[in-house]
């Protein structure tokens, strides 16, 4: 799915009465099948940007186009159809605690079910084989018949990621997928998302606090700070200097990882040419 954002200004619903904006004049051009990571200090607007792209939050001003269509110009039914082509996975997966894992995974396909089938799915899950395959990629196949409230926090997060794989979406929007995972599971999770997105030609946008993962696993990295686009660069052009500037007021977040693990180029200035992906 192609994305085109032009001068987006937005704030989350909880901040509607405030005069400050969470996103300020954001412009991005993202091609179908592209993979990119969004980084930045806490409160920089990463989650708000995903919600805008997911057509879950209407911008105050600016324009969003998904495959050339502004979702906010569509009728309710047309907007629902467009949303069925994308999948937004929040940091805390919305998993009903008393529901079985297989049922919550099958619900990822509700947009393609009739009302009768969706109700039947609550009693007899309709996509057990596919659910098992998705869980297997996260080493969770033995949890398929467990209730969600019997899972650990890390297991719930991986089930949330398995829901992404269960969908038929063209656009995957994943918010902080590694926050509850240990290093081994983090590596497995991000590799699985990237591999499966590649197989399906899906556009993959992930927000991350793990900078070494963003620069080491994604070809394009976007930096947000105070709601503004600080940089839009190929991963190999993200330098220590750029990172220190991005996290200037949040050194604790920058120091929480080892910069020796980051795939960076020392003391390289931000170029003024096509190496920057920011639209003009």
Describe this protein's structure:
This protein has 280 residues and is an alpha/beta fold. Helix content is 32%, strand content 19%. It has 10 helices and 9 strands. The longest helix has 18 residues, at 183-200. The chain is globular, with a radius of gyration of 19 Å. Residues 258-276 have low confidence and may be disordered.
Quick recap of the structure?
The protein has 280 residues and is α/β, with parallel strands linked by helices. The protein contains ten helices and nine strands. Helix 5 packs across helix 6.
Broad structural category: alpha/beta
In the sheet with the most strands, the strands line up as 5-6-7-3-8-9
The low-confidence parts are 258-276
Instruction: Give the total of beta strands.
Output: 9
β-sheet strand percentage: 15-25%
Distance between the termini: 21 Å
Mean pLDDT: 86
How can the largest sheet be summarized? 6 strands, mixed
Radius of gyration: 19 Å
Outline, from the CA principal axes? Answer: globular
The number of helices is 10
The succession of helices and strands, N to C, reads EEEHEHEHHHHEHEHEEHH
Q: Which range best describes the helical content: under 10%, 10-25%, 25-40%, 40-55%, 55-70% or over 70%? A: 25-40%
Features:
280 residues; alpha/beta; three-stranded antiparallel sheet; 10 helices; six-stranded mixed sheet; globular
Question: How are the elements arranged and paired?
Answer:
Elements lengths: L2 E8 L12 E8 L4 E5 L6 H8 L7 E6 L9 H8 L2 E4 L11 H6 L8 H9 L4 H9 L16 H14 L4 E5 L7 H18 L2 E5 L3 H7 L2 E6 L2 E7 L5 H7 L4 H4 L26
Parallel strand pairs: 3-7, 3-8, 5-6, 6-7
Antiparallel strand pairs: 1-2, 1-4, 8-9
Helix pairs in contact: 5-6
